Amino acid sequence: MIGLPAAISGVNTYWLRGYGDPPPQALIVVGYPSAYANRYFSGCRVAGRIPNPYGLDNEESHVPDIFLCGPPYQPWPEFWRAFQHFG
């Protein structure tokens, strides 16, 4: 989409692409519960919800909140090392 930065992710080999330079100051956090978002990222607020009009049972239906957050509380290099996970 025009005007948005490239997506970053810690899943699988996407993690190898890193978080960019300069590191992002605002993040859209999807797929994590509010407890996770508030624990790791500063200034999180719910910016929307992923709709599920057909009642599908998938990852998004379990955690539908979309958060707008500030950068992680830890320095980016430290946070990124621990953020890698496999899906």
Number of domains: 1
What percent of residues adopt helix (DSSP H or I)? 10-25%
Radius of gyration: 14 Å
Unreliable stretches covering 5 or more consecutive residues: none
* Overall strand count: 3
Average pLDDT reading: 92
Order of helices and strands: EHEHEH
> Which percent range describes the beta-strand content?
15-25%
**Largest sheet, if any?**
3 strands, antiparallel
Helix/strand class? alpha+beta
The coarse overall form would be globular
Characterization of this structure:
By secondary structure, the chain is α+β, with helices and mostly antiparallel strands. It has one domain. It has a 3-stranded antiparallel sheet with strand order 1-3-2, covered by helices on one side. The longest helix has 8 residues. It is globular.
Supply database-style keywords.
3 helices; 87 residues; three-stranded antiparallel sheet; alpha+beta
Topology:
Blueprint: E1 27-30, H1 34-40, E2 45-49, H2 59-62, E3 65-69, H3 76-83
Antiparallel strand pairs: 1-3, 2-3
